[in-house]
From TrEMBL:
It catalyses: beta-nicotinamide D-riboside + ATP = beta-nicotinamide D-ribonucleotide + ADP + H(+); beta-D-ribosylnicotinate + ATP = nicotinate beta-D-ribonucleotide + ADP + H(+). One of its GO terms (cellular component) is cytosol. Pathway: Cofactor biosynthesis; NAD(+) biosynthesis. Gene3D superfamilies: P-loop containing nucleotide triphosphate hydrolases (3.40.50.300). It comes from Salarias fasciatus. One of its GO terms (biological process) is NAD+ metabolic process. Keywords: ATP-binding, Kinase, Magnesium, Metal-binding, Nucleotide-binding, Pyridine nucleotide biosynthesis, Transferase. Belongs to the uridine kinase family. NRK subfamily. InterPro entries: P-loop_NTPase. The keyword Nucleotide-binding applies. GO terms for molecular function: ATP binding; metal ion binding; nicotinate riboside kinase activity; ribosylnicotinamide kinase activity. The keyword Cytoplasm does not apply. This is Nicotinamide riboside kinase 1.
Length: 221
């Protein structure tokens, strides 16, 4: 089974979901696992001394469940894809998993699985403005961005930069189309490389078998 896992990380409202959805539309046999669908129930998310719910931490996420879903895909991508409903098929026979989320590179067991890592970044003021237009469940209380979201982003970013090499940083101020074009080209090139490697492998294996039968013929004659 030829399979490829791409991580689309980045700060909140950087454009991870937008880019991942467009990528999925463009690439056959692809599907998305999104980290923000694994948040724990509000009742179990702790509150800090300022009264802010501690949502921007790995402990607020069911990372065990997220890993189980990634493992399901890894065991049988085709079966996993079928559970996600109708998809864009045809073309390449390489299966692509897009894992998107704001803390995907900070969780080591998940980070280890990526073949390619992208991180979308936008400036503080753009991030704050985009965030103010979005309604989460529960909604952000006053002061949440500066009191919790941004400090946690800076902390996790420092940790990520000190421990995760090979990240491709993307400028989230580029248009949606520009971002898609860059990542699409890159991913397609990676997929073609995988197909090339497997092609060589299959050719070598076929050659091995041919030599085996020649040898058998020689022994028996
Ligand atoms: N390249 C872009 N340029 C301008 N706005 C964007 C871009 N990508 C996403 N957005 C907008 O930013 C907001 C957050 O996008 P989203 O993809 O949900 O971010 P994330 O998944 O990183 O939180 C949405 O309103 C979306 O339309
Ligand atoms: N249950 C939820 O989906 C939920 C609840 C509260 C906050 N959030 C926010 O979601 C953000 C991460 O998701 P995005 O990267 O899509 O913005 C975090 O900054 C967190 O504060 C999500």
């Amino acid at each position: 089974m030829r399979a490829f896992i791409v991580g689309v990380g980045g700060m909140t409202n950087g454009g991870k979901t937008t880019l991942s959805e467009s990528l999925k539309q463009q690439i056959p046999h692809s599907c998305i696992i999104a980290q923000d669908t694994y948040f724990k129930d509000d009742s179990v998310v702790p509150v800090d001394s300022n009264g802010f719910k501690q949502y921007d931490m790995l402990s607020a996420l069911h990372m065990d469940q997220m890993m189980s879903d990634v493992d399901l895909w890894r065991k049988d991508p085709a079966a996993f894809l079928r559970t996600r409903g109708p998809t864009h098929t045809g073309g390449s026979d390489v299966y692509l998993l897009i894992v998107e989320g704001f803390l995907i590179f900070n969780y080591r067991p998940l980070n280890e699985l990526f073949d390619k890592r992208y991180f979308i970044e936008i400036p503080y003021d753009v991030c704050k403005t985009r965030r103010s237009c979005r309604v989460y469940d529960p909604p952000d209380p006053p002061g949440y961005f500066d009191g919790h979201v941004w400090p946690m982003y800076l902390k996790h970013r420092r940790e990520m930069e000190s421990s995760v090499p090979g990240i491709v940083f993307l400028d989230g101020l580029q248009s949606k189309e520009e971002l898609l074009a860059v990542v699409y080209k890159d991913v397609i090139e990676e997929i073609e490389t995988i197909k090339g490697k497997w092609g060589i492998f299959i050719t070598i294996k076929t050659t091995d078998i041919s030599f085996f039968f020649l040898f058998l013929n020689f022994i028996c004659s």
